[in-house]
């Protein structure tokens, strides 16, 4: 308990380790990066809040408060947090079943959800659960994000075409609503959204540092003004209710908390998966330390505190983090500068929001949703790995045909099933020596069609040898014996063996006895200390014999060749091992 309390105080300490890296040079670089980020996040914050079913100002509050706190208390040096498309989509899909998006009840429930999300993330960070994220396949996030992107696009397509919004629902319900009301198509709205999207496409090819969203919205608004859009039935944005958040405590009634708990757990998980994936990626790229559990605390703290300042749940943003890195950010001070500059931009530009047509913003969100789908990564998964393909497809289809938050659950369960299946099916490979660039190396004999010694098999196990895998491993042993004319001496390498239990030790004992009973023998070679300790404790070495345990493959082969039947060796022309040169008939 004392240890947990110490960890908590250390995680929440406002004096962060990176403070010592701040100097005049880093402050200058961080200020430039912060200004660039503020210009990008202004229209994004508005767009993401709309995706979440909230008034636009809440996205901007989130971009200030959440980014500020997560930047200070997180673990990444350059990751920028705030509103994201994925979390916005999950909130919209989860919360719209409880209240009408944009209504006062809906807004109040979102703030409660945000506090719950933050609390869950802080608890996860305190209990050092950051490593558990590594067990969730990245394909879950890819499939989930693609499903979220389609839901976002379907929700904004009507606005881009000038068609009145329907009652909501999933992707197909929204597309059906548009098809049924296609006679309401507004050509002016379509022109404005089309020009906005075209501007974004062209600007995105020009430079990442250009505030393309602001420019595209300005162009779309200019076209709308020239066409007299407001007089032709094109909806315009309402002015922001406020540019500064009001402070208030979310509703924490037990009944509401119980009702929102599944949605809160989903949002918390998606947020952590996003943030830790992004933070770890940039830390590796920049050769910086990264603590995923501290990141959990930082993300949780930003959401918990943000819920009192009219923020909704946020997470790390890959787009803004990448821009931050490209702009030369050095420390989390860049997020502090970004928050400050965003407030200044709000003061200057907020009065002009009512001049922005809804189709222009819908065009921006459609472009964002398209960019959210990682087509290259999807193609890579689909063409390279069947297990990851199953995870991706299961997550994606669940998000499309049912609920978006259920997609995460299905993806995680599928990941777990794949992990358990792979654990129960370790690789058992028969190796044989061959020359590669003048060096003698062992490769899979079956894969590379290499000749095998008629008396000796060199076997390697890669994976765990435990109760769930022993049956599969034994079956692979038996298949490897098919076609053997004489009993073989087995040399088993356990370098890749990362777990063994009583059942695994039992299988080894069985194989040792089986080989010797058939007239062959059994040797083990490994320097894997945990495996050696376990095998010794489970009395495998008592059966094996001291002279049959070796430090490396060469020692095991030398011992096995020395004991090989000379009558068979003298007629053998294969001479698979170097040591065969000392046998009769060489």
Quick one: how many beta strands? 8
Q: Count helical runs.
A: 24
- What is the assembly state of the chains in this entry? single chain
Helix content: 55-70%
Task: Determine the strand fraction and express it as a percent band.
Answer: 5-15%
What does the main sheet amount to? 6 strands, mixed
The computed structural class is alpha/beta
Mean pLDDT: 88
Low-confidence stretches: none
Radius of gyration: 31 Å
The CA-CA distance between the termini, in Å, is 69 Å
Shape: elongated
Order of strands across the widest beta sheet? 4-3-5-6-7-8
Could you give a quick summary of the protein structure above?
It is built from 24 helices and eight strands. It is α/β, with parallel strands linked by helices.
Notable traits:
6-stranded mixed beta sheet, alpha/beta, about 5% strand, about 575 residues, single chain, 8 strands
Q: What can you tell me about this protein's structure?
A:
The protein has 24 helices and eight strands. 47% of the residues are buried. Helix 3 runs antiparallel to helix 13 and helix 10 (254-286) crosses helix 11 (292-306). It has 586 residues and is of the alpha/beta class. A hairpin with a 2-residue loop joins strand 3 (427-436) and strand 4 (439-444). It is elongated, with a radius of gyration of 31 Å. The strands form two sheets. A six-stranded mixed beta sheet has the order 4-3-5-6-7-8. The termini are far apart. It has helices spanning 2-12, 24-51, 56-73, 85-95, 104-126, 138-161, 171-180, 187-204, 212-227, 254-286, 292-306, 318-326, 333-349, 358-372, 375-384, 386-401, 404-423, 445-448, 470-481, 502-517, 529-537, 540-544, 553-563, 566-569; strands at residues 80-82, 315-317, 427-436, 439-444, 456-462, 489-493, 522-525, 549-550. The longest helix is centred in the middle third of the chain and has 33 residues, at 254-286.
């Amino acid at each position: 308990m004392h240890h947990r309390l110490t960890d908590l105080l250390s995680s929440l300490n406002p004096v962060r380790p990176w403070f010592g890296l701040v100097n005049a040079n880093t402050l200058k670089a961080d200020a430039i990066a912060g200004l660039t980020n503020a210009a990008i996040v202004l229209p994004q914050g508005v767009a993401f809040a709309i995706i979440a079913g909230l008034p636009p100002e809440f996205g901007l509050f989130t971009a200030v408060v959440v980014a500020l706190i997560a930047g200070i208390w997180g673990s990444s040096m350059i990751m920028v947090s705030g509103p994201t498309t994925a979390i916005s989509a999950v909130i919209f899909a989860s919360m719209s079943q409880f209240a009408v998006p944009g209504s006062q009840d809906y807004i109040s429930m979102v703030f409660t959800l945000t506090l719950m999300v933050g609390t869950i993330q802080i608890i996860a960070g305190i209990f050092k659960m950051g490593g558990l994220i590594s067990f969730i396949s990245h394909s879950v996030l890819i499939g989930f994000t693609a499903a979220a992107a389609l839901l976002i696009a379907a929700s904004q397509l009507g606005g881009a075409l000038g068609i009145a919004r329907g009652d909501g629902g999933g992707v197909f319900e929204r597309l059906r609503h548009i098809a049924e009301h296609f006679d309401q198509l507004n050509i002016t709205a379509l022109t404005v959204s089309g020009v906005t999207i075209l501007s974004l496409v062209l600007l995105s090819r020009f430079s990442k540092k250009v505030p393309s969203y602001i420019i595209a919205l300005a162009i779309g608004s200019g076209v709308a003004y020239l066409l007299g859009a407001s007089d032709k039935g094109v909806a315009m944005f309402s002015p922001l209710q406020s540019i500064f958040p009001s402070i208030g405590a979310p509703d924490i009634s037990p009944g509401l908390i119980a009702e929102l708990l599944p949605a809160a757990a989903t949002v918390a998980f998606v947020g952590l998966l996003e943030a830790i994936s992004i933070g770890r990626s940039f830390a590796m790229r920049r050769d910086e330390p990264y603590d995923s559990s501290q990141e959990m605390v930082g993300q949780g703290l930003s959401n918990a505190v943000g819920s009192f300042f009219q923020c909704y749940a946020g997470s790390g943003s890959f787009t803004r983090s990448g821009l931050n890195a490209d702009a030369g950010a050095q420390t989390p001070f860049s997020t502090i500068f970004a928050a400050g500059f965003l407030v200044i931009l709000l003061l200057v530009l907020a009065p002009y929001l009512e001049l922005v047509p809804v189709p222009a913003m819908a065009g921006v969100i459609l472009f964002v949703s398209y960019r959210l789908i990682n087509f290259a990564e999807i193609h890579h998964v689909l063409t390279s790995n069947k297990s990851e393909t199953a995870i991706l497809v299961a997550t994606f289809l669940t998000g499309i045909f049912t609920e978006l938050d259920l997609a995460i659950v299905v993806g995680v369960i599928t990941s777990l099933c794949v992990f358990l299946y792979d654990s129960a099916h370790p690789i058992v490979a028969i190796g044989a020596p061959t020359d590669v660039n003048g060096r003698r190396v062992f490769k899979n004999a079956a894969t590379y069609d290499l000749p095998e010694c008629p008396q000796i098999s060199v076997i390697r196990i890669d994976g765990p040898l435990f109760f769930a895998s022993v049956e599969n491993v034994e079956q692979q042993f038996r298949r490897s014996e098919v076609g053997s004319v004489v009993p073989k001496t087995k040399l088993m390498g356990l370098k890749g063996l990362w777990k063994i239990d009583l059942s695994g030790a039992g299988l080894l004992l069985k194989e040792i006895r089986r080989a010797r009973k058939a007239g062959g023998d059994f040797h083990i070679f490994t320097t894997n200390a945990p495996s050696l300790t376990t095998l010794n404790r489970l009395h495998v070495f008592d059966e094996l014999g001291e002279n049959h345990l070796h430090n490396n493959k060469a020692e095991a082969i030398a011992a096995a060749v020395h004991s090989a039947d000379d009558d068979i060796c003298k007629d053998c022309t294969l001479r698979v091992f170097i040591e065969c040169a000392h046998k009769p008939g060489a």
